DNA sequence: CAGTGGTCTAGACCACCGA
DNA sequence: CGGTGGTCTAGACCACTGG
């Protein structure tokens, strides 16, 4: 049981979405509608509306007559999202370089510094770090007039968001991420669009490299089984 | 009033979606929930579920306390989708070229020929032409293992789908589209990945060039007013 | 069989809009 | 004021699952 603010649906939606994206609800975990009805003290209608929404976004799998489950991560999907991001973001960053003003450079520098400060803290808030990481990338999308693309990519990235979260909380290799951001910054600072593609590629593929071995061991329960391996 | 098959929701959803995408329901047109209740003889619950779904996909705008409307097209969004597609599809097509077998070449040739045949028909079915156009592009996505990306792009393309439909039904410049497909085919056939980028760019921007002038005249009611023009 | 989700009805109350 | 959507309850019946 929890307290029930007005507009239950919206609250419940945010609540569950946050728990899923921050991996508080584990991929694969089962969640029953009736349980949720009790937990939030509401009837099935708002719960179902939330579940439909989450399942529409790919965060939840509703299996008829069996149950509802937090969606597993699909490694292939994640690879493809990264492929797409590399293509799009390289183009955007190349567009951004000639548009980058000293003020924007300072903004980027500022984000990097905040991440460095955050990293030093004990009881480090990983969500906050993730947030800053997003902000960094957001700068060039918005500056180059691709605001809508950034939002679209964010929405399509549901799996990838949890993957990045996993990268951050499980690997905790924050210095590597910051280092890559610095390299990107250097490129922008020196106005060298030719160097964009390989660096973006390296940066966006970073999570895969860092997590690769563990996906098949400790973290395997979070991922969809590869089709045709065993059985 | 219409006949009411089982599983009203799904039927109603398909029905409305088709009518919107094929421009039978005009962008901007108002649609009331209660009207739909009568038309399909169901209560508000299934209607609302359908409306939510459509609005979630960006096909519908639900304006609280005023009404529901078929979403207007947003020219800027369409440009950005095209920008993204150019980046992604160029990469995919470059990957595809070395993977293209003679069998696949025949498949592409076959699609082009079908389009040419279709074009000669009187009472030409534009939806069918659109369908073939999609199939052509789909080939390289699927072959290069980017099946999921293709579906993702299709889903993100709701506005763009109607834009392409507009291009096909309003401009009817089918020879231009076919000609571009032939050029792309030639590139593939000769295994010339360097030529991909500009050609993809030309092809995907084609619709904009063809429609450009009319967007501000006959078709202006279908588009969101540019912010800050008049008023 | 009990439990799950799938679907729907009927009806309620609210907030806001425009005439 | 009547019409619109926003939200929710309560409860019904169904189809399928799994012990």
3D architecture notes:
2 copies of one chain form a homodimer. Chain A is mainly α. Chain A folds into 2 domains: 8-70, Orthogonal Bundle (Arc Repressor Mutant, subunit A), CATH 1.10.10; 75-221, GntR ligand-binding domain-like (Four Helix Bundle (Hemerythrin (Met), subunit A), Up-down Bundle). In chain A, 67% of the residues lie in helices and 4% in strands. Chain A has helices at 8-21, 33-40, 44-56, 75-96, 102-120, 126-143, 147-156, 158-171, 174-189, 196-215, and strands at 30-31, 60-63, 67-70. The longest helix of chain A has 22 residues, at 75-96. The radius of gyration of chain A is 20 Å and the shape is globular. The A-B interface holds A 49, 52-53, 56, 76-77, 80-81, 83-84, 86-88, 90-91, 146, 148-149, 152, 156 and B 49, 52-53, 56, 76-77, 80-81, 83-84, 86-88, 90-91, 146, 148-149, 152, 156.
Largest sheet of chain A: 3 strands, antiparallel
CATH C-level of the largest domain in chain A: Mainly Alpha
Side-by-side strand order of the widest sheet of chain A? 1-3-2
Helix/sheet category of chain A: mainly alpha
CATH superfamily of the largest domain in chain A: GntR ligand-binding domain-like
Strands of chain A, count? 3
Percent of residues in helices of chain A = 55-70%
Task: Tell the overall outline of chain A.
Answer: globular
